[in-house]
Amino acid sequence: MSETKDLPYTVQSIVEKKIWVPGKLFSVKTTRDPDFNFKPGQYARLGLGLGLDEDEAMPPASDLTWRAFSMVNQPDDEHLEFFATLVPDGLFSPSLYELEVGDSIYIDKTTFGFLTIEQFPQGGTLWLISTGTGLSAFLPMLNDEKTWQLFDNVILCHGTRLIEEFAYTDLIDGVKERYGKRFVYLPISTRETHKDYPQKRFTDLIVSGELAELAGHPMDPEVGRFMLCGNPGMTTEARKLLGELGFKSGRRGNLGNLAVEKYW
Ligand SMILES: Cc1cc2nc3c(=O)[nH]c(=O)nc-3n(C[C@H](O)[C@H](O)[C@H](O)COP(=O)(O)OP(=O)(O)OC[C@H]3O[C@@H](n4cnc5c(N)ncnc54)[C@H](O)[C@@H]3O)c2cc1C
Question: What's the gap between Cα 252 and its chain centre?
Fold first, then answer.
């Protein structure tokens, strides 16, 4: 990789690209700087030189366009992986979608984010509620031994519009095989009927009590720890509903039982 000692980013390259749903959902795997470290749930800033001259290989960071992306891979993997939505009229994601194997991408040297399991007291049930690509932040937690040492059970809820958008199901099936009854996966689509799950929004499922029933675990602030990630409509409404049930974010060094990350 090129020398970027005095720059806040490194230059990496795409080693794999996967289209999950054409024109909509995709993932990219990149090379990784050996000094880039992160905890499951954290995110990186990816940069592209939109509109810059192609031979300007290492421009000032302020000339690049940056967007946040959660790491999907395990912290000790050789490569980094990001799962992305193509926002049709977006500034960044259409160009990210166009990248091919061998193309360069800039990655900020700093990692960010507090959506990590250390935010919660030990024990009880970890609820991971995501919509769309919000799933990304939770994937590295599922195969992290620490998650299973800290919590008795893990419930992964993934909300999408369509059934075809349920991504990373092989990885999720592997977690199910490994952890059996300690792990519950609830794929919920809002625009299509699924044979096993209701066609509803998470917030409605929380209000009706159906989410607790489907998961087979109560939504009890004594034993539940909630993470919400994705669409701000869902995170804002779910945070309010969970607040009414007694869940709280951590404050001033006190551990909470609710942590939220909005993707926009
Ligand atoms: C902490 C954090 C982590 C993030 N992690 C991811 C990730 O892992 N994967 C990912 O795809 N995006 C992620 N995002 C969103 C990402 O940073 C960009 O906003 C997204 O790629 C769109 O950029 P854009 O320039 O194409 O769109 P912009 O021109 O910036 O348009 C923004 C609009 O795009 C839409 N939008 C933004 N993000 C999404 C999304 N994820 N799904 C659906 N619609 C969206 C919203 O309508 C938003 O108002 C994250 C954002 C934050 C703040």
Answer: 25
